[in-house]
Structures are given as C-alpha cells and as structure tokens.
C-alpha cells in the first residue's frame, strides 16, 4: 500500500471515530516513516573492522556506524582502497554504512591537537565517497568541552573553517558531548552553518541530568538532531533508566526520521549478540 492509500484509508477510518483529518494525516505520516536501525562498530566489538558488517547481519541490523579509523592506522577510511573494501562488505552483506564516527577525538582532542584538523576534513571526503551524510565528532574524555570555554572557542573556530567544505559535500558534522541542548546550540549558532548539528545520545544526556525528552523535542523541532544513539548503560534498552516509550513520543513530536544507532545496552555478564537482538526487537516494536 502506497503513502496516498495509507493516508486515504486512515482518514476514512478516523472520520468514523471523530478524529480530525489533520490529526489522521499526521498519524498516517508517522506510520509511513521508515526508521533504519544500526549499531556502532565499537559497540559490537568491531571498531574500524570490516567484520562489523557480518556481525550486524547476524543481529539483523539495517546498518553500521563505522569508525573513520584509529590513531594507529591514521584514520584508514580516508584511503580510497579502504573505502572500496567497506562498500564491498556492505554490498556483500546487505548491511548499510549508516554514518561515520571519529571516536579517537576522545583521547586526541579536536579542541587542541593539530592532527585532528586533517582527520575531520578528511572525514568529509570519506563520507561523501561512501555516499553517507553524517560524521560523529566525539567530545568526551580528554576532549570534554563541559566548562571549557577556551576549548569550546577553539572548536568553534575549527568548525567555522571546515563547515563550508561540509556544506558543499552535503555532509553534517554531529557534535556528541556532555553538553546540554542549550550549550550545543551555542556552538551551532556561533559556527553559523547548517552542516553542524547535535548527535544526540539519550543515555549520556540522561546521565547528566538533562530532561532528554524535552531536549529531543526542542532540538528536533529546530532540525538540529542529525542522528541518535539509542543507548543504555549496563542494561538492555527498555530495562534501564531511560524511558524509551517517552523517547518514542518525543521523536514522534519533533518529526525526526533519521538513523538510530544502538550503543552499549549490554547487561553485566551478558553476551553481545543476544543482547543486541533484544535491543533491536524493542526498537522495532516502538519504531517499526
């Protein structure tokens, strides 16, 4: 059934229950969304490793968020031959490359280390070559920006320099950090580019005490969430502190339709693959 048929049928059924046509169309549009669910390659034990595609296929995921590389391999995904290997693995398994990530920025900070400047710039080229749209820039550990005005100012300066390239390539640089929604928006507004957005992690923001359900709505309605980590610490999704029914409602309200990447969400002592199959089952039940 195509979207036009879904809208027509839903509107007709809604009329019988006294639901307005506008609300009926909104409900039909929600059901018509096609959410894709993946996982971070580091979360499934395959950081910067092609084996991630086979593991993701075993779990039943739609895609994998792949690491640009490591310090040791000099961010290998910038190399055309490595990109080809990833595209071949994706084609062979039927598992998509969902997006890219530079997790090494947690240890080698973008706010201070000059080596990270060509890494971020090169990630844009790699992202475009792979036909993807999002690169996660991590700001934890040594790269933490919370309470660091000097570091934040330098990140803003560097993002201003690279944002035009990202805009031209159609690539979004997603900031994932301990910052609040308002603090993220300070960086985004200061850079002044549509190529810089928030990479929202529900567990990290919940841990910081932010009202994640309000933040998702606020940032999402501004169009400032480029991708989402569906994460829990030490528990399966739906069995920890994050209320994923409320997450679903917030996502529905703000209209986000992008990728969802599972991260963490493995109970202590549990095996990864069965845990991720359970996590995927929960997200499928909520988001279809």
Summarize the structure.
Helices cover 48% and strands 16% of the residues. The chain has eleven helices and eight strands.
Structure description:
This protein has 288 residues and is α/β, with parallel strands linked by helices. 48% of the residues lie in helices and 16% in strands. It has helices at 3-16, 21-32, 51-59, 80-93, 116-129, 149-169, 181-191, 202-207, 212-221, 244-254, 272-287, and strands spanning 37-40, 63-67, 96-102, 134-139, 172-177, 196-201, 225-232, 260-264. It has an eight-stranded parallel β-barrel, surrounded by seven helices. Helix 1 packs across helix 2, helix 5 (116-129) runs parallel beside helix 6 and helix 6 packs across helix 7 (181-191). The longest helix is centred in the middle third of the chain and has 21 residues, at 149-169. The protein is globular, with a radius of gyration of 19 Å. The model is unreliable at 1-14 and 26-31 (pLDDT under 50).
